TrEMBL record:
The beta subunit is responsible for the synthesis of L-tryptophan from indole and L-serine. One of its GO terms (cellular component) is cytoplasm. Pfam families: PALP. This is Tryptophan synthase beta chain. SUPFAM superfamilies: Tryptophan synthase beta subunit-like PLP-dependent enzymes (SSF53686). It comes from Oceanipulchritudo coccoides. It catalyses: (1S,2R)-1-C-(indol-3-yl)glycerol 3-phosphate + L-serine = D-glyceraldehyde 3-phosphate + L-tryptophan + H2O.
Amino acid sequence: MDSIKYLLNDNQLPENWYNLASDLPEPLAPVLHPGTGEPVGPDDLAPLFPPALIEQEMTSERWVPIPQPVRDILLQWRCTPLYRARRLEKALDTPAKIYYKYEGVSPSGSHKPNTSVPQAFYNKEAGIKKITTETGAGQWGSSLSLACEMFGLECLVYMVKVSFGQKPYRRAFMESFGAKCIASPSETTASGRAILEKDPDCTGSLGIAISEAVEVAAQNADTSYCLGSVLNHVLLHQTIIGEEAIMQMDMAGDYPDVIVACTGGGSNFAGIAFPFMGRKLRGQQDVRIVAVEPSACPSLTKGRHAYDFGDTAHLTPLVKMHTLGSTFVPPGFHSGGLRYHGMAPMVSHALQLGMCEATSYNQLECFAAGVQFARAEGILPAPEANHAVVGAIREAERCKREGKSETILFNLCGHGHFDMQAYIDYNAGKLKDYAYPEDEIAMALAGLPSFGNS
């Protein structure tokens, strides 16, 4: 019988996270203090993060142990299944073999709890009482509210205003787990009020929401800030996905020729790709890795690799990343989790070193691929995950044209059960593709900081 799913036992749950920094041929550019332009140290990050996460942010160790209390919670849904997409292969009439790692089985329906749980754990250990954060589509806010409830922490979520209106069920999920959810930009912070004064109808952005969350955390000693993507320690936590996938591909007697993942801030991409990338860097097995992003917010394919702020109000340190400019406000397309102006420094660095490649697709093409996938495989993807789906389908179509039987692996990072309004709009013909706003990005890039960019 041809297998369609590959399952690991509880005792096969990885005991360590993998750190790509240990295998990089060139180190990452240092994080800079916005006031001095000098590299930041642990003390500079202490107002926002607990010591354990600061250490993980800066470590060069290859393997970082996963605490047992974290593993105990992760075991509620991990290890996640790997599927062979045989019905999709048949529908595409492709010689390619397509596999997908499905992260939608987590309690919040995405890959995000892989990092929200350890972040909540380390904050609890450090005596923190409250956590602030931002969220785009709501997947991260949902995951952090869940983790905070598990560890008895208060949770305050600033949700990008356009998503706050588009995705009421995500908001309801957060509130059901005790979190407070505020539409951003808001009147509750100085940075939010400043944005609203300039543009009362501002639809918000992840950069703005980050500013509000960071401002609250920095002003309260019992409060920390948690980020759902971009930072090294977040990407580190997500590598549990790829570590499991390596074992599951071995169970299938196969290995990917191509890995595809959607990219917004970089956590989902890093989760599936970094462990395979590390094997490639260590000379074990080669693989081609493709990052797929939305054409309306194309930080990797159209952004500049430069030092920039992670937030709009410039409260964060400066990191070198592919960026569209910290003041760039993307259009309100439905993939809210991919509307960030920048890309994770380590993902950006990997692209600069030629360790991966990047491409982009428009919204309608992504939704069409998601519906095609759902009708073949029975899982309706989140709008963000549709970018990985279309990327995998295009690779399978290429294999058909070239007559090649390559193995394609992609990360289906979440289900679309909270995104039905997006599918309602798509099926009704109400969605549209957003043009790449070159003039707005040019204006935002013109405001890049001088530190490190001369």
